[in-house]
């Protein structure tokens, strides 16, 4: 018996060699059309890591071996693994690989592969990431920065500032077209989650759009790589020098680095700044989530940074 040419496997039958890897390829193929470009690269990385695990452990990776013990062994392998590029994996990358493997195994089960469920008992320990977001003061340092002699950074600044006031991902800033804009409102379906959102535009956002009204596209969006490169240059010029401590773990080893904020600002910082600045203005979470297209609070939490002054203001207001 088969599904699309794949043998249904039970623990009583000998599992075909490479079936796990064939199914990873199938998962990528089945999801390519519906997923954002590049979002499936983690499955290609998973395939490479499982192949490396096979070689080191001299054992075949099989569905019927996907147990709690396998996850423990694979996690330990990833902690000590060195990639072809000579790099080791930090705790965040390892957690992502393990959660990707779980997602893939759930897909295989739905497709008819039969194996135990012991792997579901394995708990993935996730490190909470630092949220890099601009304060309102830092935001207006960028807005008011004199770039009259630097058109390149001026255009990058406009895209970033627009992202901060509408809360869009880079992919949605990039897909924005004239037909999405109706007066002072944008009607857009997000690229990543396919969520329809309605965005009322502030005077600042409208001013940026007016600046480029003669262009074919509403915003001068460039490639993601160049955008991030120029953002670093822009934020350094604006002297966003607040020191940020970044903590990572490699196994049990704690690695601490200190960076100036300008070095950490990326395309995604605008979306995090949008949420964090609105929280500082005491806009209700439900409103921010609706504006930004966040569908649940758990995913929303990863985007917000509540500054010390905001906490202080909330408490002082609450007890007046």
UniProtKB/TrEMBL annotation:
Gene Ontology MF terms in the entry: DNA binding
Family (UniProt): Belongs to the 'phage' integrase family.
Record carries keyword DNA-binding: yes
Name assigned to this protein: Tyrosine-type recombinase/integrase
Keyword annotations of the record: DNA recombination, DNA-binding
GO term, biological process aspect, one: DNA integration
Keyword Amino-acid biosynthesis assigned: no
Gene3D superfamilies recorded: 1.10.150.130, Intergrase catalytic core (1.10.443.10)
Pfam families: Phage_int_SAM_5, Phage_integrase
Source superkingdom: Bacteria
Stretches assigned to the Tyr recombinase domain: 129-316
Organism, as annotated: Sphingobacterium humi
Matching SUPFAM superfamilies: DNA breaking-rejoining enzymes
InterPro entries the record matches: DNA_brk_join_enz (IPR011010), Integrase-like_cat_sf (IPR013762), Integrase_catalytic (IPR002104), Integrase_recombinase_N (IPR010998), SAM-like_dom (IPR025269), Tyrosine_recombinase_XerCD (IPR050090)
């Amino acid at each position: 018996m088969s599904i699309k040419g794949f043998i249904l496997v039970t623990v009583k039958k000998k599992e075909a060699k490479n079936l796990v890897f064939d199914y990873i390829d199938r998962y990528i193929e089945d999801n390519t059309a519906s997923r954002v470009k590049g979002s499936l690269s983690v499955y290609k990385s998973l395939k490479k890591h499982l192949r490396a695990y096979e070689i080191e452990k001299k054992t075949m990776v099989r569905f019927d071996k996907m147990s709690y013990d396998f996850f423990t062994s694979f996690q330990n392998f990833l902690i000590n693994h060195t990639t072809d590029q000579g790099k080791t994996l930090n705790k965040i990358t390892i957690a992502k690989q393990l959660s990707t493997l779980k997602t893939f195994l759930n897909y295989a089960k739905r497709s008819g592969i039969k194996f135990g469920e012991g792997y579901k008992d394995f708990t993935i320990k996730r490190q909470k990431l630092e949220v890099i977001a601009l304060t309102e003061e830092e935001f207006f340092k960028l807005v008011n920065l004199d770039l009259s002699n630097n058109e390149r950074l001026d255009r990058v600044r406009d895209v970033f500032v627009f992202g901060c006031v509408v809360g869009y991902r880079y992919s949605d800033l990039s897909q924005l077209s004239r037909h999405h804009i109706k007066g002072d409102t944008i009607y857009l379906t997000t690229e990543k989650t396919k969520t329809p959102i309605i965005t009322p535009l502030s005077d600042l956002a409208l001013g940026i759009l007016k600046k480029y009204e003669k262009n074919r596209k509403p915003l001068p969006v460039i490639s993601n790589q160049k955008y991030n490169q120029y953002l670093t240059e822009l934020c350094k010029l604006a002297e966003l020098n607040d020191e940020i401590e970044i903590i990572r773990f490699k196994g049990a080893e704690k690695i601490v680095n200190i960076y100036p904020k300008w070095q950490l600002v990326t395309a995604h910082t605008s979306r995090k700044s949008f949420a964090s600045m609105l929280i500082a203005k005491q806009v209700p979470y439900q409103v921010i989530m609706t504006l930004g297209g966040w569908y649940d609070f758990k995913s929303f939490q990863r985007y917000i940074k509540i500054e010390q002054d905001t906490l202080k203001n909330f408490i002082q207001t609450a007890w007046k």
